[in-house]
C-alpha cells in the first residue's frame, strides 16, 4: 500500500485565493482526519470523518474552511479566501477505526503571501 | 472531553543517557495511548503504543508505562542516539470520543 497520499506537497498562493488540499486515505480505512501544524499552535485536529460522514468539525477555525469526503478514497480541505495566518503544514491521516493507530500523509506545506 | 498534557516541552540529553517524557490525560475511559515521533520536515509516525489492559510495553530501547489510577503514561528512551532527536507526541483515545487527542509535543535533542 502506498500509504496516505496528499497533494499538493507544497502550495504558495496569494491572500484571497482559494486553496484546495487533497487526500487519499489508505484503502480499507474508515476514518480520516485533517490536522494543521504550526510552531505556535502545534498539531491541531480540524475535522474528522467516519465512513465518509463528518463527525467533529469543532476544530475548523472559521467558515473560510470547509472539508468534504465524497467517497471512501478521497477527501478535500478547502480554504476560501485564504489568509497569511493560514500558512501551516496540513496533514491528512487515516485509521481503520476512529480510535486506532493513525497513519499520517506527508503533509501539504501551505504558504499564503 | 479528553485533555492531554505533555511535559517537558523541550528536553536535551547527552548521547547514551536516558530520556523520559510524561503525559497526563483527563478521561478515565481512555483506553489507547500511542506515541508518535516526528523528525524535522517529516510526518508523525507511530513508534509505540499501549492499551489500558497492560501497564508496560517495551520495544528495544523504547518503553511506555501506563498508570491508570493516576491517569498518566510515560515514554522512556534508553541509550539515546543522535537519530532519536525529534519531536515526540503522546496521544490518548477515550471511548467517548472517536479520535485521538494529542499532547503539545516534546522536542528531544540528543547531543553527541
Describe the fold and architecture.
The complex is a heterodimer of chains A (113) and B (112). Chain A has 113 residues and is mainly β. Chain A has no helices and eleven strands. Chain A has strands at 5-7, 10-13, 19-24, 31-38, 42-50, 53-56, 65-71, 74-79, 88-95, 103-104, 108-112. In chain A, strand 5 and strand 6 form a beta hairpin. Chain B has strands at residues 4-7, 10-14, 19-25, 30-38, 45-51, 56-59, 62-67, 72-77, 86-94, 100-102, 106-111. In chain B, strands 2, 4, 5, 9, 10 and 11 form a six-stranded mixed sheet that branches. In chain B, strands 1-3-8-7-6 form a five-stranded antiparallel sheet, with no helix packed on it. Chain B starts with a strand and ends with a strand. At the A-B interface, strand 5 and strand 10 of A face strand 4, strand 5, strand 9 and strand 10 of B.
Topology:
The complex is a heterodimer of chains A (113) and B (112).
Chain A: E1 5-7, E2 10-13, E3 19-24, E4 31-38, E5 42-50, E6 53-56, E7 65-71, E8 74-79, E9 88-95, E10 103-104, E11 108-112
Parallel strand pairs in A: 2-11
Antiparallel strand pairs in A: 1-3, 3-8, 4-5, 4-9, 5-6, 7-8, 9-10, 9-11
Chain B: E1 4-7, E2 10-14, E3 19-25, E4 30-38, E5 45-51, E6 56-59, E7 62-67, E8 72-77, E9 86-94, E10 100-102, E11 106-111
Parallel strand pairs in B: 2-11
Antiparallel strand pairs in B: 1-3, 3-8, 4-5, 4-9, 6-7, 7-8, 9-10, 9-11
Amino acid at each position: 500500500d502506498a500509504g496516505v497520499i496528499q497533494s499538493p506537497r507544497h502550495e504558495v498562493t496569494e491572500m484571497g485565493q482559494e486553496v484546495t488540499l487533497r487526500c487519499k486515505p489508505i484503502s480499507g480505512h474508515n476514518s480520516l482526519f485533517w490536522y494543521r501544524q504550526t510552531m505556535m499552535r502545534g498539531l491541531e485536529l480540524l475535522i474528522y470523518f467516519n465512513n465518509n460522514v463528518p463527525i467533529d468539525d469543532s476544530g475548523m477555525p472559521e467558515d473560510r474552511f470547509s472539508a468534504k469526503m465524497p467517497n471512501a478514497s478521497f477527501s478535500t480541505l478547502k480554504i476560501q479566501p485564504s489568509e497569511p495566518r493560514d500558512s501551516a503544514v496540513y496533514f491528512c491521516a487515516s485509521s481503520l477505526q476512529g480510535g486506532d493507530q493513525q497513519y499520517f500523509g506527508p503533509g501539504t506545506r501551505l504558504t499564503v503571501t | 472531553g479528553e485533555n492531554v498534557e505533555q511535559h517537558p516541552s523541550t528536553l536535551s540529553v547527552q548521547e547514551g543517557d536516558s530520556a523520559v517524557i510524561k503525559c497526563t490525560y483527563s478521561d478515565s475511559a481512555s483506553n489507547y495511548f500511542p506515541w508518535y515521533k516526528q523528525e524535522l520536515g517529516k510526518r508523525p509516525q507511530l513508534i509505540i503504543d499501549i492499551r489500558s489492559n497492560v501497564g508496560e510495553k517495551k520495544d528495544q530501547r523504547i518503553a511506555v508505562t501506563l498508570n491508570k489510577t493516576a491517569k498518566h503514561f510515560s515514554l522512556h528512551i534508553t541509550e539515546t542516539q543522535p537519530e532519536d532527536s525529534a519531536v515526540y507526541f503522546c496521544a490518548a483515545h477515550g471511548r467517548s470520543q472517536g479520535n485521538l487527542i494529542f499532547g503539545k509535543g516534546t522536542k528531544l535533542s540528543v547531543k553527541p
